[in-house]
Amino acid sequence: MCRARGTLSLCILMLFCSTGWTGTEIQEIYESSYYNNNDGLLAVDNSTNTCFESGRERAPWLALNMAALTSVKGVFIQGLLAPMGYSVSVMTGCDRIGRSLNCRVTQHCVYQDVMPTWESHDTYVTFDCGRSLNGTHINIAAVENKIVKKLRLCDIQFMV
Predict the structure, then answer these.
(1) According to the UniProt entry, where is the signal peptide (predicted)?
(2) What whole-number distance in Å separates Cα of residue 134 and Cα of residue 69?
(3) No. of H helices and E strands in the chain?
(4) Mean pLDDT, the chain cut into blocks of 10 residues (160 residues total)
């Protein structure tokens, strides 16, 4: 359950919060690939004990289709390996083409910090979206390069 304190509150992805009670559900989750049936739902299942893991590829990604336009100020991810090699985007005007998303407006959040967690050996990685970015989709992706890697996400939270 999510209760607002002060002007902002951090909440698990399944429920976005600000002052008072609000809610936005995830309509669909898209991923570039997955490993051992670990689909993207594991990144937003309110558990840090389960993780989404992509297959090995050059630019793995996970996209969340929110049911409504949402204003996002920051994104916090637990379980992301090598955070400097990844990006977070807030997108609108998206169409699904095969396994890919084609979006007309993409705004980027900036890697900010790594914080240790008390529950496990993982860390929370913070991406700052600066001012509020409005979008219907959130995309977490590895920066494309020649290195083959996996995308691992155990918990995703937003500041709205």
Answers:
(1) 1-26
(2) 6
(3) 0, 9
(4) 30 30 66 79 84 88 88 87 82 83 87 70 81 91 81 85
